[in-house]
Every structure is written in structure tokens, then in C-alpha cells.
Amino acid sequence: MSIAEQLQRQHLAALTPYASARRSMSGDGIWLNANEAPYTPSVDAQGDMLNRYPSFQSDRLNGAYAAYAGVAIEQVLSCRGSDEAIDLLIRSFCEPGRDGIMITTPTYGMYAISAQTQGAKVIDVPLVADGDGDLQLNTKAMLAALDGVKLVFICQPSNPLGNRVDRKALQAFIEAVGSRALVIVDEAYIEFVDDSTQASAAQWLNDYPQLVVLRTLSKAFGLAAIRCGFALANTDIIEVLRKVIAPYPMPQPSLQAATAALSTTNIARMQALVAETKALRDDFIQWVSRRPWALKVWPSVTNFVLISVPDATQLVSNCAANGVLIRNQSAQRGLNNTVRVSIGSATEMQKLMEVLP
Ligand SMILES: Cc1ncc(COP(=O)(O)O)c(C=O)c1O
């Protein structure tokens, strides 16, 4: 039995997914099978084929992302942002009221929110400081707390901390979990990590059937508005997610924009923006480290920086009053009086530095 068959919610085993018109029959010809209009009558609608339901999964998009991520097209599911992938995983694998997910706080908030929405339990095994004071996975405690856990969510690199999860520890953890649970490595910010292809867990997919990697076009690719994310996993897991995902998940304009973003030219442009953002980040870190109110500037391999300050609420509202929005992270475990600053354009960072004390 595959790991997906073993862990999925039991009723899904017998479920036949909705056979949408586009999923069951598409190709050249005259399309009269989905109650669509023959054309788009409104004059200012932008884009092609807006009268048609989009593909269930676009081979062009999934193929382009597979090539970019170094995986097989069968290992790709595209969805409405990686937030949808988080929700799909929980809906597919966690029996409400019985199964749980594991998170490692401080971490991205949507794992717990999606779980609570679905009635799945949330087991928190907080990160612990290593010898250098860097917050890292407590893999021993995580392995000890796996009972009843179907999905383990690991944010790599971490939002909100901005650091990397130790790669060796992560691999050893995935191995030790074996077939007891799926390990979800959320790589929303992976493009900002030096040598990101090597740093990604995607290259382990063929070794670990329990691994799922989440990706997005919302961050380095600068396409948050089109809502495009990806779950990368082995085909048995992708098959289960395909049962649960909506019949026409991604809007056609999003599919077009996402596919275009993955051309060689546009990947190079994304990489140029990443390089620019990293340089601005390092300049900002240098600048802010000299401010007396910056009690700790957390090292970052991402496009944001976490800063411990004397009074986060006051700092956030002072910035807002001057037209710059930064994020208070104080509600996160162990992050009392911290703010998170996203790295914007050179002009935006200049304005931020004028506004900060
Ligand atoms: C760690 C992490 N994962 C996932 C997401 C969701 O991204 P999206 O749904 O836009 O792909 C975010 C967004 O901030 C994030 O920080």
C-alpha cells in the first residue's frame, strides 16, 4: 500500500472525483460540453478564452514548473497559491476530530488555521535554540510526538524568522518519520536562499515517498495577485490531492501569467530581482543593526528581516502614521516585541529608513 493510500482520509479511497468537462474531455474541436458561452461579449475583458472553463491542470504550466524545479511533471500539482495546497493536504489526510498536524512555532500561521478550520488537531513542537542561538527543529521531540499526526509542516526557510532549517537535520528527520506521516517542506522563500536549487528539498522527492514540497509564485516571482502555488510530491499523493481540489482550480489569466513567468527570460528576470532584493536586505540589515532601538536583528536568507525592539506596537503604529506598513510579530511564541520588515524597492527602503527612528 502506498503512503498516500495508508494515510489518506478513509472515505477518499472510494471517492470518484467530479468528472468536469475539461478534465474528462478536451482537445481541438467545437466545445459544447460545459455550458459555456461561445465568446466573451464584454469589450474590456482581457485575455484569451475567457468564455471557457480553464484546464483542470495545465500541462504547459506544470511542465514549465517541473523543468524549473527539477522534478517530473507527474510530481506537480498547481493550485491557488500554496495556501490552497496547505488546505488540500489537511482536507485529504486529516480525519476531523481524530488526526492532527504538527507545527514548529514560531512558524507560518496558516498551517494551524487551516487545521482548525477542518477540525484537525494542532500539535506544536516549538523550535529550540542551537549552540549559536539559532532556532532550529527539535527533531527528537518531534519524533516523540508523532502519534496521531498525519502531516508535519516545516517552513524552510522560516517565516517569520528568516533563517534556514538545518539541511542534515531535516533530511534525517524525514528519514526517521518513514511512513508514519507526510513531511511538508514549505519553500515559499527558497529562491532567496543562496544556491537555491541545491538547498531545495525537491531533489529528495524520488527518495522519500513521504515528502511534499510547497512552492509559490507569490514571493520571488512577484506574482501574488495571480494566486499560483505548487505542491510537489510523488504521484500517489498528487492523485489524492487531485481528488479533492476544485474542478477548475486556476483562473485562465493566472495560468497564462504563471506559464509566461516560467520562460527562460522571465526566470532570469526573477533572479535579477532576487539579487537586487538580497543586496537591499543586506544594506538594510547593516543600517538597522546600528540603531540603538534594534535590540536584535535576526539573520535572514529571505526577503524580510525580523527585528526585536523595545515596543513593537508603538513602532508599527509610528511607521503606519508615516505611510509605511510593517508587521508586528509579537503574537508568535517567543517573539514578544518583534517586527518583520519586507524588503521593498530601493525607494521604498529609503522611505522606510526615513520613517524609522
Ligand atoms: C511560508 C509561507 N507559506 C505559504 C504562503 C502562502 O503563499 P501563497 O498562498 O501566496 O502561495 C506564505 C505567504 O506569505 C508563506 O509565508
From TrEMBL:
Protein name: Histidinol-phosphate aminotransferase
Keyword terms, alphabetized: Amino-acid biosynthesis, Aminotransferase, Histidine biosynthesis, Pyridoxal phosphate, Transferase
Record field: catalytic activity: L-histidinol phosphate + 2-oxoglutarate = 3-(imidazol-4-yl)-2-oxopropyl phosphate + L-glutamate
Keyword Amino-acid biosynthesis annotated: yes
Pfam families given in the database record: Aminotran_1_2
InterPro entries from the UniProt entry: Aminotrans_II_pyridoxalP_BS (IPR001917), Aminotransferase_I/II_large (IPR004839), HisP_aminotrans (IPR005861), PyrdxlP-dep_Trfase (IPR015424), PyrdxlP-dep_Trfase_major (IPR015421), PyrdxlP-dep_Trfase_small (IPR015422)
Entry-linked PANTHER family: HISTIDINOL-PHOSPHATE AMINOTRANSFERASE (PTHR42885:SF2), HISTIDINOL-PHOSPHATE AMINOTRANSFERASE-RELATED (PTHR42885)
Record-listed N6-(pyridoxal phosphate)lysine modification sites: 219
Keyword Zinc-finger belongs to the record: no
GO terms assigned for molecular function: histidinol-phosphate transaminase activity; pyridoxal phosphate binding
Subunit and interaction comment: Homodimer.
Biological processes per GO annotation: L-histidine biosynthetic process
Gene3D superfamilies linked: Aspartate Aminotransferase, domain 1, Type I PLP-dependent aspartate aminotransferase-like (Major domain)
Family (UniProt): Belongs to the class-II pyridoxal-phosphate-dependent aminotransferase family. Histidinol-phosphate aminotransferase subfamily.
Cofactor: pyridoxal 5'-phosphate
Residue span, Aminotransferase class I/classII large domain: 45-356
Pathway in which this enzyme or protein is active: Amino-acid biosynthesis; L-histidine biosynthesis; L-histidine from 5-phospho-alpha-D-ribose 1-diphosphate: step 7/9
